[in-house]
Amino acid sequence: MPEPKLTPLGVMVLALLREADMHPYEMVRLLRMRRDERLVKVTNGTLYHCVNRMLEQGLIEKVGTDREGNRPERTTYALTDAGHNAMHSWIREELSRIDRPAQFRVALAEAHNVERDDAVALLRIRRVALADEAQIHRDGFANARDKGVPAQFLIEIERQQALLDAEVVWLDALLSRLGADEIPWGSAGHLDTDRYLAQRKAAAQ
């Protein structure tokens, strides 16, 4: 069977189901409560379509239905082993890549779903690629200036070099914090907090 192609929204849904079994309505509410619309477009239609597609791919499975009062029947879904592996593979691939910034933001948001050491190793690979790319821009910018290319044509290159340099600095600081265990990692870092439990309860209603 070919490797399932996940969307960023699909990865975030799988990550939610790694926390607990949920119905789509709860997924939508949690994504909005956590302001994940910064990263992916979240609508009832797109999420239900995503859930149905991953159900067909065997990444999630139905584990129950319920109805409360006059509310529509709700189907609860769980993460399968295939879904867990697909989510891990997607996050691991995107953490080290520098050519897909939108996907990287989602991978970074869900990086706590892989082992800390794995995340650190992948981010170090990314750091090397970023530094190399920054040097390419730096050399190209200097070469263009030496050739007398007008500054107005170099603005975008200058901006990109600045962004690359800034991300390298930020990434060095993050890797230092991860190496020193300053950032709680994985489910132990949040699943038993009062804030998390209150958020889950509110989303499920």
UniProtKB/TrEMBL annotation:
Report whether DNA-binding shows up as a keyword of the record: yes
* Gene3D superfamilies hit by this protein: Winged helix-like DNA-binding domain superfamily/Winged helix DNA-binding domain
Listed GO molecular functions? Answer: DNA binding
Q: Name one Pfam family in it.
A: PadR
Please provide the record's keywords in A-Z order. DNA-binding
Q: Which InterPro entries match?
A: Tscrpt_reg_PadR_N (IPR005149), WH-like_DNA-bd_sf (IPR036388), WH_DNA-bd_sf (IPR036390)
Q: Which residues form the Transcription regulator PadR N-terminal domain?
A: 13-88
User: PANTHER family per the record?
Assistant: TRANSCRIPTIONAL REGULATOR YQJI
* Protein name in UniProt: DNA-binding PadR family transcriptional regulator
Species of origin reads Microbacterium pseudoresistens
